[in-house]
């Protein structure tokens, strides 16, 4: 297929770039009403609309937040996968967050995009939220500061950030129709604050509205939220776009200030409908002009910064796989993964330098690099935990392996045992269109090949011309590595069957149950078994009919999602696997268990049911630890998990989702090449009932009552004197740290709120025997008695700084500057930010429950402010 330009051409073959220097107000005047309306919705799923006659180009956006996936859901472009947001936040390193943004800018532009749909700064109100791994923290200040650094790096690379989801999408249950009922004070102090901090410090290019309602009004059509707060109070001058299919009205959203409906073409902003409402005086055309001007101003800004991207010939998305890019990206990803890893427990077993070590667990040889949903992408490369531990082990370490038990939700995707018909890696795909009479075409309308047997089929449907009904056939040649029973599993969006040769092994055409795959559009996985012989060749086929059984549940979202997933693996009994793991543990000096969750369990579209690891993982860990107490558990998860076996193991490392370099980062910590410096950006509860939002975490007949108010995360645990499993800020090291000489230099006189500054510093000493890095966390504590009689958290995080390469015996001064944000609360009566007068204090957090020192300062005059 011949390459075509993204933008209209000028004279000859050169694209018309007059838009880059055009006057936006003049362009708006030249547009017809229909052209204006087209600009207020996407051109397609990932691009804005264009107006060729005026030289207005379309620009492309791409999903984040831990990698730039590109335009394809099925045949995804390989990408650099950074560690997930909680891992990045656990580094407590603003420079690392900024470096991550720089890398993501380069990745976005390689995909032809000038906008990354990230970062996510929703609060981890409950660690069970499906997208908790995608957000930074339960703490609004940490979330806002990390987001600001991330945005700074991204936009320094010329790529627009899209901070999201604005606001109150803190859980996935019934997210499109739920109503987050949040009182003014927690709305301001907890849920809006990360956005406010990022807006003040980094000025993101775009905001994405959330799916849900907030206090009765959908965020995408809330004039107070979009116009009064964001535009007027905060001075935002960029683009406001909807989440995908998160627009629910025409006049309400346009009048409220939603500039861009995504995706496109517009479902609500169809020209005929909008023209009708303009004629009915429900929308003033001047309001449309304002919305269009915002879109054009944003497009022009990022087109000017990236003309080589916007005006390039539209060819395949690029992969940044040069030796230099690969080395630099790998070094950064590995560094973030190692600095973000949190040493939760260490009874002297770590670091490991010698001995027979049994590596056990369902995640050990799996490439678990990211969470699921919009954050999921195809990793350009992936170092598994086993790869990292084997490839980096000291000479005196001898490794062995045992599977342990199952931990994944779905049967493992097709691997190297499955090839296409000609013997090449991958499998063949054929698509047959069903005519209006219901007859299936005898010849395929599309023949293709791919190598990942988990496919959203959007681009294939597009290539077929988006027929109403069709049948897809995935076929592969299967040459098993071992004899015995193999388990096959499929989850699909329509109906289908899996064949081995001519035998139906899985029938997914009936008795379907709702599942979680494909953004909750797929069925629960169906499984079946087939006995195979090593070395013999079999033909495996998945025949998928896009039609849903008449008794199946209905898809209620505007985008009709179609997908197929096929997996196969040796049938393994968990009883046998646990027994083998126990035997391996007994034969070893030490054990490293790699377990946790993955993108099937932590994902957009659904929340986790509880804190436990899945299936029999907890049982397996307990059995292995009973056989060999010298056991270290390495956990891969994006948020808090339960640990009923904690007292039985010698060490626990929380590795999060570490991106491409997962295994190397884990090895760096386990073997002591990196001294752990990660600290928890969220509290780990002992039980689900200890979570502040435990009784109000779901939509209850559409309403979600945020009854915990400002008492979220560690503020809840501290106020109610509940002992968490691990507190916010917890993180051990291979050395020890001591604080001394905490002091503050308060402002003199009575400065205005914008001028108020407080310098705080503390001396940090490495009192151990190993060099390391250490983040220092500064909290403020309010006066014991307040004039407003409001309750405040006894202390709250306000700033942090990280010290690197501190040698044994060395002392360094950690210093920060605090501003009005560190002492302000939202006054619901006055509807302003206010500062309590009296004796305040700065404290340093060993963790959120253990404070060092108390440096007091006085606030002797009233301070009241609004805005930023």
UniProtKB/TrEMBL annotation:
GO terms for biological process: glucan catabolic process. Residues 422-582 form the PA14 domain. Its EC number is 3.2.1.21. Keywords: Glycosidase, Hydrolase. One of its GO terms (molecular function) is beta-glucosidase activity. Pfam families: Fn3-like, Glyco_hydro_3, Glyco_hydro_3_C, PA14. It catalyses: Hydrolysis of terminal, non-reducing beta-D-glucosyl residues with release of beta-D-glucose. It is an enzyme of class 3 (hydrolase). PROSITE patterns: PA14. InterPro entries: Cellulose_deg_GH3 (IPR050288), Fn3-like (IPR026891), GH (IPR017853), Glyco_hydro_3_C (IPR002772), Glyco_hydro_3_C_sf (IPR036881), Glyco_hydro_3_N (IPR001764), Glyco_hydro_3_N_sf (IPR036962), Ig-like_fold (IPR013783). PANTHER family: BETA-GLUCOSIDASE. Belongs to the glycosyl hydrolase 3 family. This is beta-glucosidase. It comes from Vanrija humicola.
